[in-house]
Amino acid sequence: MRSLFFFCLCVTVxxxxxGFDYIxxxxxxxxxxxxxxxxxxxxHACPLGSPDGLLFEVFxxxxxEKLEKLPNLLNQYSIAFDFREIEKLNGPIKQLADLYQxxxxxxxxxxLLLEQLEPYFSQFPNTCNGQxxxxxIQKDPDCQRxxxxxxxxxxxxxxxxxxxxxxxxxxxxxxTVIKVLYVHVEENVQNGLQQTKYLLAEIKEIVHDWIKSTPxxxxxxxxxxxxxxxxxxxxxxxxTDTWRSSIEExxxxxxxxxxxxxxxxxxxxxxxxxxxLVAMKYNDLAPSxxxxxxxTFISHPYIGLSFENYYIAQHSQNMASKIGYxxxxxxxxxSHILIKSTVGDYLTYFxxxxxxxxxxxxxxxxxxxxxxxxxxxxxxxxxxxxxxxxAQLAYYVLERHFxxxxxxxxxxxxxxxxxxxxxxxxxxxxDVSIVSRFYDQKYCLQGNAGKTSINHDGTLDEHSADYTxxxxxxxxxxxxxxxxxCSEDSRMIxxxxxxxxxxxxxxxxxxxx
Length: 513
Ligand SMILES: [Zn+2]
What we know:
Layout: H1 2-12, H2 22-30, H3 41-45, H4 54-69, H5 78-86, H6 93-105, H7 110-117, H8 143-155, H9 158-187, H10 190-212, H11 215-219, H12 223-230, E1 234-235, H13 239-263, H14 271-281, E2 297-299, E3 302-304, H15 307-315, H16 319-338, H17 352-368, H18 381-402, H19 419-426, H20 466-475, H21 478-484, H22 491-494
Parallel strand pairs: 1-3
Antiparallel strand pairs: 2-3
Helix pairs in contact: 1-10, 6-8, 9-13, 10-12, 10-15, 10-16, 10-18, 13-14, 15-16, 16-18, 16-19, 17-18, 17-20, 18-20
Bound molecules: zinc ion.
Zinc ion binds near residues 332 and 386.
């Protein structure tokens, strides 16, 4: 596996063909070269004054600029074009009744409208004949009165409104996913994508060996069960097929929408009705979750890598940057399966000593570098552990690839190239705001600089604050001290607690009694 990945890297090591190098650019622009990385690495790499949410800012601008330059694909679909106005309206009730009134006053065809609405707004849609359900309304010559009656009837069906809102939300997301996929396709990040697959394969191979030599796993006979939990993991990466099927699906919705519009002679006021009918017909619309700008997550067995991972794998010039960023991301996601924090997790057994070790490190880092608040909750164990183990796995990959060249000086930056590994991790988490920006975070690798976010329901977010995540991870990597030649009394080293070898031959014993 190693040789396969190595081959892949050899052909792409030049990187940066018509792209930018996110890691090196960020280092050049934002790392404060006047501060000691061994003092507070996070604030050395991401000083106050650097952009808030650097990763998000860089890549959302990148998407915006790309989409501005590309022909506007969505405008070719009437349903997508019209949706810009439809979504501003507060539900379909008023518009459907207004449409009735309009058609009625212009002596248009109200029968068609009422017949189309009947299946959704009748008490007995299967048994009534049209006259008895909604069609009786048109017998009233007063169009305003008829419209009011229809409005009242429509209001009585909250489930239909819920279903409409659900579809609207899904459709909005569907259009966003299509735009994101469009950029994947136009940027052609296949090369970067291949590298992420090789990285996952290599990390899985390493994990496999580590599990096999882990004393607590051996002593409790859970090596095979643990390996079986990670074996099926794959990256959900087929953006080309997802792109094709999404466009096809949009085309199908558009045909249905346009057919309806043509029955009303493309009368603009029929837009909401036609969108409503599409919503009822395709209420199972479920856009892919796996393709995003900067939001990575795992939904076992699939890892959804966000776009910037493919981009960084493809355009970063130095291997240390790629392994630091993408290797850590994949390592983190895979590690979610390998840390057991609740009974519902995948593992059947996990080391208690490893849990304590992980939380001790986060506590220590949090106390030492405290910004706005410091919290190490039990519910954060999973993510804290995934950070530590993910970084250990990525660093092991780095060592395998660089061998004795880890301290070789980077030609243009003048620093040991392996330092880019550590900067790459920091540039995933650069934030300066002390106010939560991401509520109810479901994604692993976004956070807040100075404090743990509070979710809408008042619970603390499962991710530790960014300053804690980055500095705790660095303190747990012996390679960090070497790469930056940190003295024993520097804060990054004194805040390091005992080495947390969660898996591998140095992991705790945990004999079962
Ligand atoms: Zn996570």
